[in-house]
Design brief:
Number of domains: 1
Bound molecules: zinc ion
Oligomer: single chain
Strand content: 5-15%
Helix content: 25-40%
Mean pLDDT: 94
Strand order of the largest sheet: 1-2-3-4-5-6-7
Number of strands: 7
Shape: globular
Structural class: alpha/beta
CATH class: Alpha Beta
Order of helices and strands: HEHEHEHEHEHEHEHH
Low-confidence stretches: 279-286
């Protein structure tokens, strides 16, 4: 029988998988090519945009997404559409001075109580990467919370679902969410499910990571860093991915830049194409 990595030794089918030579080649932290959930002093981060970007470049990443909060998160000083436009100009400036790494302009957009997003489509369309997260009304019953999150995932501008269950270890239970249903929807819609690497979150949990992987959903490991020092949390997220049986191919941000951009652009292009063809279609039928 091949050696079984310690992360898998939980009597959860690993012995059978080893005997059948079907153990996954677990993802390694060195395979990560970008961080896709990063805050700055534009909202509640403690280090400035340029410092965060330079620190990501220094880690050797091929890409980073800057994802500050939207306005619903008042305590974090969330940005409105004009705030994001201002940040877009600053990011453009950094693109001219920092070479070798793609800087994606993103946002961590609040999922409001009814599943609507806290930015309009025009503002969302101007972004390269959108993490949608729940930060309020965490005690909804499971069917309502599931409906709320599903509605958000249906927006073609949403790239990833951030810290999908909202748990804070030792402080807050996960909110009630039908995770098999969310994982199926994520696969069908092409939305990434985040493994948030903050040590107090580690969200998704290992069981849900494995469930998502087996449902065919793609995952993304991201630090949700609020300071340069937190970019190093990546290894905790990768450990979590390993506990959930993930190989590098299961984790979107192990892909080279071109492949990654192709993956995250797919839904948007489909939505834009559909929107573009609608007037022509209606004209033809009129
Ligand atoms: Zn968040
Ligand atoms: Zn965040």
């Amino acid at each position: 029988m091949p050696w079984i990595p310690p992360e898998l030794r939980k009597d959860a089918g690993e012995i059978e998988a080893a005997r059948a030579r079907r153990l996954p080649a677990l993802v390694e932290v060195g395979a990560v090519r970008g961080d896709l959930h990063v805050h700055t002093t534009y909202t509640d981060g403690r280090d400035e945009l340029e410092a965060m970007v330079r620190a990501c470049a220094a880690r050797g990443y091929a890409y980073v997404a800057i994802t500050d909060h939207t306005q619903a998160v008042r305590v974090a000083g969330g940005l409105d559409a004009s705030g994001f436009r201002r940040q877009a100009r600053a990011i453009d400036g950094l693109r001219r001075t920092i070479g070798g790494m793609a800087i994606l302009h993103g946002a961590e957009v609040d999922i409001l109580e009814d599943g609507a997003l806290d930015l309009d489509d025009a503002a969302l369309a101007a972004l390269d990467y959108v993490v949608a997260s729940v930060h309020s009304k965490l005690t909804m019953p499971e069917p309502d919370m599931t409906r709320r999150v599903l509605r958000a995932l249906e927006s073609p501008f949403v790239t990833a679902l951030g810290h999908p269950t909202g748990r804070l270890l030792g402080k807050r239970e996960p909110y009630a969410l039908d995770m098999p249903r969310i994982a199926r929807a994520a696969r069908e819609l092409g939305v990434l499910l985040e493994i948030n690497a903050q040590p107090e979150r580690l969200d998704l949990c290992d069981v849900h990571v494995r469930l998502a992987r087996e449902a065919g959903a793609k995952l993304v490991v991201a630090t949700d860093a609020h300071a340069v020092a937190e970019l190093g949390f990546m290894r905790h997220g990768i450990d979590q991915a390993r506990r959930g049986w993930c190989a590098a191919a299961d984790i979107a941000n192990t892909a080279p830049l071109a492949e990654f951009l192709e993956l995250i652009g797919r839904r948007r292009r489909a939505a834009t194409a559909a929107r573009g063809s609608r007037p022509a279609g209606s004209a033809a039928s009129a």
